[in-house]
Amino acid sequence: MKKFLDLISEEMKDAFETAGYDRELGKVTLSNRPDLCEYQCNGAMAGAKVYKKAPIMIARDVAKKLVGSKAFASVEAVNPGFLNLKVQEGFVAEYLNGMRAGEKFGMDMPENPCKIIVDYGGPNVAKPLHVGHLRPAIIGESIKRIARYAGHDVLGDIHLGDWGLQMGLIITELEERQPSLVYFQEDYEGDYPAEAPFTISELEEIYPTASAKSKEDAAYKERAMEATFKLQSGIRGYRALWNHIMQVSVADLKKNYENLLVDFDLWKGESDVQGLIPGMVDYLKKEGYAHISDGALVVDVKEDTDTKEIPPCMVLKSDGASLYNTTDLATIMDRMEYFQPDRMIYVTDKRQDLYFEQIFRCARKTKLVKPETDLLHIGFGTMNGKDGKPFKTREGGVMRLEMLVKEINDEMYRKITDNRQVDEEEARQTAQVVALSAIKYGDLSNQASKDYIFDVDKFTSFEGDTGPYILYTIVRIKSILNKIKEQGGSGEKGLLKEAQSGAEKALMLNLAGFNGMMETAYKETAPHKVCAYIYDLANAFNRFYHETKIVAQEDEEIKSGWVALLLLTRDILETCIDLLGFTAPERM
Question: How many domains does the chain have?
Answer without folding.
Answer: 3
